[in-house]
Inverse folding.
């Protein structure tokens, strides 16, 4: 058993503590409170004291690690169609298949940087299985949750996807890309597998206005894109009846529940936000990617009012200028001045942990959670003299100059 004390402790799930202490044993947090109270309660226990900020590790709830090598896709001009960016991305991916070592090297570098920046848990979406990323967690990496992503824009692709999924081991989580790249049959099939195995179901949702047009009438750039690729064969049956929004469509299919993670959720109505909350589904915001692609801003205030704590994700270098969760917090604060800094910090920690049903391990510094404690400091944090300013600096100040993980003896 050890006592870890600090000038400031930000547990997230409970109020912040000035001059606080954590008690840890066997890799878990046993107790937390004001330092004088903890020292009195646990007399004779060794203490390690820091003159800095202690907080839970961040949770990056949406990455595409296999795109870590993509560094030169320029921000699309305002008049570009969403599918123009997709075409550019597909071209870059095809070029990368010639040098697998380049891709693997970029992935491992990205994971190391995530951990160095204070990220404890990463959720990754990928189209390819990388043996290098399976097995035991590597030293200097965050815990990695990898989901194999499937697309099925036509009947033949649906049959191929179902066959591949049927041959996967039960321990391999899967997800579906988006409602414009996979028809309803694959969405329902994949969701049923996730339900049966107790896996999270992650899906891109309501990312662009073009997606709404596609769902409402089966027209627009996504229809053109599919026709150009000879993938329009009636798979998208909603083209005849239309849906007013992605969330309504998902609910119609029965895939919206407490184990569904909706990534982006930019173009959602207030009624859809309330429906997400009613179904207990989760949302992952990617403000950096949304800004890069010019698709708009998610109605974060409505989500919080509805009782939803969104997660945060960085997406990939193909759609973001920097893969840094601290920068995502900065953007969110700048774009949504009515949202409290405490709420944004909760999104970067507890929101992701809850979405992946890992809040018993990650997301807060409270009894029972893993003693994976993040220590952060910077000249600006040192100058802060109250908790409100500390949290403001953590959210709006960018990546702190000093970040380290506190090792506890097991």
């Amino acid at each position: 058993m050890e006592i870890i004390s600090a000038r400031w402790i930000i547990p997230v799930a409970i109020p912040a503590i000035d001059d606080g202490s954590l008690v840890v044993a066997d890799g878990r947090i046993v107790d937390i409170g004001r330092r004088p109270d903890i020292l009195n309660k646990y007399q004779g226990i060794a203490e390690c004291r820091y003159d800095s900020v202690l907080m839970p590790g961040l949770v990056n709830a949406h990455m595409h690690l296999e795109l870590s090598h993509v560094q030169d896709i320029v921000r699309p001009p305002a008049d570009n169609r969403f599918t123009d960016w997709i075409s550019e991305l597909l071209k870059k991916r095809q070029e990368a298949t010639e040098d697998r070592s380049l891709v693997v090297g970029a992935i491992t570098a990205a994971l190391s940087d995530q951990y160095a920046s204070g990220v404890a848990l990463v959720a990754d979406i990928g189209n390819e299985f990388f043996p290098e990323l399976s097995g035991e967690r590597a030293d200097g990496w965050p815990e990695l949750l990898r989901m194999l992503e499937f697309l099925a824009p036509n009947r033949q692709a649906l049959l191929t996807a179902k066959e591949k999924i049927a041959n996967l081991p039960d321990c391999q989580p899967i997800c579906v890309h988006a409602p414009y790249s996979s028809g309803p049959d694959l969405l329902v099939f994949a969701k049923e597998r996730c339900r049966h195995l107790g896996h999270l179901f992650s899906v891109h949702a309501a990312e662009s206005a073009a997606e709404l047009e596609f769902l409402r009438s089966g027209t627009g750039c996504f229809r053109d894109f599919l026709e150009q690729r000879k993938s329009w064969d009636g798979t998208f049956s909603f083209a005849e009846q239309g849906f007013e929004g992605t969330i309504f469509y998902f609910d119609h299919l029965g895939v919206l529940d407490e184990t569904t993670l909706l990534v982006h959720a930019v173009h959602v109505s207030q009624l859809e936000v309330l429906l997400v909350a009613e179904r207990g589904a989760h949302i992952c915001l990617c403000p950096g990617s949304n800004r890069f692609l010019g698709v708009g801003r998610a109605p974060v205030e409505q989500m919080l009012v509805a009782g939803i704590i969104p997660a945060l994700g960085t997406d990939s270098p193909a759609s973001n200028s920097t893969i840094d969760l601290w920068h995502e917090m900065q953007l969110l604060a700048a774009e949504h001045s009515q949202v409290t800094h405490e709420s944004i910090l909760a999104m970067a920690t507890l929101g992701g942990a809850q979405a992946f049903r890992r809040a018993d391990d990650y997301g807060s510094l409270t009894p029972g959670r893993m003693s994976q404690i993040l220590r952060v400091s910077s000249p600006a944090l040192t100058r802060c003299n109250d908790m409100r300013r500390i949290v403001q600096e953590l959210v709006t100040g960018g990546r702190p100059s000093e970040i380290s993980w506190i090792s506890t003896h097991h």
The CA atoms of residues 180 and 211 lie 7 Å apart. The longest strand covers residues 47-56. The first helix runs from residue 35 to 41.
